[in-house]
Amino acid sequence: MHIVVCIKQVPDSAQIRVHPVTNTIMRQGVPTIINPYDLFALEEALRLRDADGGEVTVLTMGPPMAEDALRKALTYGADRAVLLTDRYFAGSDTLATSFALSQAIAKIGETFGPPDIVFTGKQTIDGDTAQVGPGIAKRLELMQLTYIAKIASIDLDAHEITVERRSESGTQMLKSKLPCLITVLEGINEIRRGSLQDALRAARSEIVTWSAADAGIDDLTKCGLRGSPTVVKRVFAPTGRAEKSVQIDTADKALRDLADELIAAIFTRQPALEHELACDGA
Fold first, then answer.
1. Distance between CA atoms of 155 and 48, rounded to whole angstroms?
2. pLDDT tens column, 111-170
3. Distance of CA 74 to CAs 43, 117, 150, 197, Å?
4. Which domains does the chain have, with CATH numbers?
5. How far apart, in Å, are the Cα atoms of 266 and each of 262, 263, 270, 281?
């Protein structure tokens, strides 16, 4: 079994600052980490490999410094790491990113063997779009299983996998044929501590580094800014509300009286709402 795990190196959200004048994210001096959701995906891939055998290949797209994230993934026990880096990828949105990663996964399949499962985290903490995983699945024509909370079973002989998917209405049990793409939720597992042996191996390992040409990407108009229809106008920190909250005393009051008092307080602060509701009622 061959499993590919897509990870991303992101700024540590606990230390992100917004420039007070330009309203842009200040990345200088901010440490980077592996996207936390991707760590759960990596751990799930490693557990499947440990149970059923095979290899785990970790893939990321980013600048050369993203090699640090790949070496960290190797310390957890991944077998191989691939860095997709090229100036043509600069400024990629989710559409361009999913295109480049799908091309790289196809190249990984040609080079190291077709993947049975592609894992990603449900989303990244910097973009929060949850679009890259499904975008990769669409481009590679893979069955996509999103927001997975548990892998119930896997049958390699029948090429089937059964998973629990968390939805707004509850939990769904889904069965899919392999190959497939899975985006996992936080808490699906407990992330292991890397062993000393894996740490030493990670320090010595050669990171496979591919440019756009190496990955077989011929159409560069689908990469980077040219392939990105999304444009971020500005990033800003929301200002605090000037109005203070109003606390209603609930002691020794009937529910009807509390409801009347709450509605009166809302209409006092939002007089236009009372007029709008009156007009709708008429």
1. 11
2. 999 999 999 999 998 888 999 999 999 999 999 999 999 999 999 999 999 999 998 888
3. 11, 18, 23, 11
4. 2-227 (3.40.50.620), 241-282 (no CATH)
5. 6, 5, 6, 18
